[in-house]
Specification:
With about 425 residues, this protein is of the alpha/beta class. The chain is about 40% helix and about 15% strand. The chain is globular and about 60 Å long. About 60% of the residues are buried. The structure holds 2-phosphoglycolic acid and zinc ion.
Length: about 425
């Protein structure tokens, strides 16, 4: 049973404070967990409690969240069985009592929820993926490797936030990561040759000052070929424009960073349709803004049989929004971020709903991360076959990839690496 719950303020990969929770059990087991933080956050995400005290960290301190763990949450967890994850998460939700977890803070609550899971796994002497996913958990995810950063994640002229490699045609996770890393290096050489910056953005992808968004796709195809790989069949492309970050009040889209002008929802979908024909794109996330439900339904009807349409800000890992999306056929896949909803149990409920609908899901990091590799184990536990965790660069991104390498090695011949994108897409 739980004998000790503690928390502290640490830094995330952007140098902003975040919460780390430590839990100890009667048998001497100790476990900790650290909470990530987004920049292009969805409007309906669970609330990250910040101190708003301007004298410390520009108001971004998390001392109140830390105090909530130590003073409010710890006393109610004493003596509880950490294997009762659902019961403990329910208790945390009730203790907070607000719909957005704003009283105790979703950062405080998620830290505890993740640390409880890790402590229980260790008490059972199980790796976290096997504890959360059971003995059948053996599918490694296809990584979405973010190699060009724009939008709110970089100070360049790209409106679109993420241009990712999808090495789905590799025989194993290990080889997929190699395809991704080799293409990343080839891309660096391509950028250098053109006199473009090879400095990186928040998720470790390059942040070149390209004059238009489409140029990023062309550069990626060039890099895949330069790495000696086949665009489409071996390495495809995924996009996360994160369109909520350039949506306008009137429901349109303003490509302000690139100077690309104003576009309607229909014009955005037409643009993606053109790109899908020109480049080996297999997945499109948040191609429209978080309130553009009708636009999403139109987009999914038009493009959903050719690419995976993923909702991130649209759903914020919340079953209420995902249920609406299923009814309205708004997308055909969901991005899963534990800190958007605030507990491990609710994260798993969101995935269960996707499964029921026959939808795909992608387990994801945040742009502000820590060295905690919880989501690597979570992706294998849930077995959806996809993870999004940044470039093969920056320690907080590589921590997840390295953990997946470890898991694949541990599973040995039982490990499965299978493309969720069906027959390999070939380059147009
Ligand atoms: P965020 O970005 O963590 O800054 O929200 C990630 C995403 O939009 O998928
Ligand atoms: Zn996103």
């Amino acid at each position: 049973c739980i004998t000790h719950v503690d928390a502290m303020e640490i830094l995330d990969s952007r140098g902003n404070p975040t919460v780390r929770v430590q839990i100890a059990l009667e048998d001497g087991t100790t476990a900790d967990a650290s909470v990530p933080s987004g920049a292009s956050t969805g409007e309906h995400e669970a609330v990250e409690l910040r101190d708003t005290e301007p004298a410390r960290y520009g108001g971004k301190g998390v001392q109140r969240a830390v105090a909530n763990v130590v003073e409010t949450i710890a006393p109610v967890l004493m003596g509880r069985d950490p294997a009762q994850q659902a019961e403990i998460d329910r208790l945390l939700i009730d203790l907070d009592g607000t719909p957005g977890k704003s009283r105790l803070g979703a950062n405080a609550i998620l830290g505890v929820s993740m640390a409880v899971a890790r402590a229980a796994a260790q008490a059972f002497r199980l790796p976290l993926y096997a504890y959360l996913g059971g003995p059948g958990a053996r599918r490694l995810p296809v990584p979405m490797i973010n190699v060009i950063n724009g939008g709110k994640h970089a100070d360049n002229a790209l409106d679109f936030q993420e241009f990712m490699l999808v090495p789905h045609g590799a025989p194993s996770f290990r080889e997929a990561l190699r395809y991704g890393a080799e293409t990343y290096h080839a891309l660096k050489a391509v950028l250098k040759r053109r006199g473009l910056s090879t400095a990186v953005g928040d998720e470790g992808g390059f942040a070149p000052d390209l004059s238009d968004n489409e140029a990023a796709c062309a550069l990626i195809v060039e890099a895949i070929e330069a790495a000696g790989l086949k665009p489409g069949a071996q390495v495809a492309i995924a996009l996360d424009p994160a369109a909520s970050s350039f949506g306008t009040a009137s429901g349109g889209y303003d490509l302000a960073k690139s100077g690309g002008g104003h576009k309607s929802s229909q014009e955005m979908t037409a643009l993606y349709q053109h790109w899908i024909t020109a480049y080996p794109i297999v997945s499109l996330e948040d191609g429209l803004g978080e309130n553009d439900w009708a636009g999403f339904a139109t987009q999914t009807a038009a493009l959903g049989d050719r690419v995976q349409i993923v909702g991130d800000d649209l759903y914020v890992t919340n079953t209420a929004f995902i249920a609406r999306g299923i009814t309205e056929r708004a997308t055909n896949a969901v991005l899963i971020k534990p800190n958007q909803i605030g507990t491990v149990t609710e994260t798993m409920e969101a995935v269960a709903l996707c499964r029921e609908a026959g939808w795909r899901f992608v387990v994801s990091h945040r742009s502000g991360e820590t060295e905690d590799s919880f989501i690597a184990d979570l992706a294998v536990a849930l077995g959806g076959g996809q993870i999004k965790t940044g470039a093969p660069c920056r320690g907080e991104r590589v921590a997840k990839y390295n953990r997946l390498l470890e898991i694949e090695r541990e599973l040995g011949p039982d490990a499965v690496y299978a493309s969720p994108f069906g027959a390999s897409r070939t380059a147009p």
